[in-house]
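Human: We require from you a standard protein entry with sequence in single-letter code and fold as tokens, and nothing else.

Assistant:
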Amino acid sequence: MSDGITLVESFPDATTYRRLRVQTGLSPKSHEAAVRGLANTLYGVSLLKAGEVIGMGRVVGDNGTVFAVVDIAVQREYQGQGLGKRIMAALDAWLRANAPESAYVMLIADGEARHLYAQFGFADTAPASISMAYVARGPDSNR
């Protein structure tokens, strides 16, 4: 592209993934969690500028009944340029081509990102469904 940013159909390694999460304000992940989790990526993309990963997004799930869009991240200095939309367009195209009929596709939208995801057909499920979570063995965990 003319902006020098290329979208590639591959996901970063654990070290790059962890760096980009922290740089973009997402929660940090341990190296072990990253290695184990990334191995379960069904489809992922990276945005590259001059060989450096500046953005990412991936799809995880059971590859049949449920899919989740996760880890959408763009370095702060590149935000607001439509790069999140480029990532989502690639993930959405893959899902529409590969997810079987009746599959449930979900994501958790942080803040104003919900407007981006709505452009791809995602709708708020509340009050019928709400997102619930805990962090395994984290500082806020009761386990």
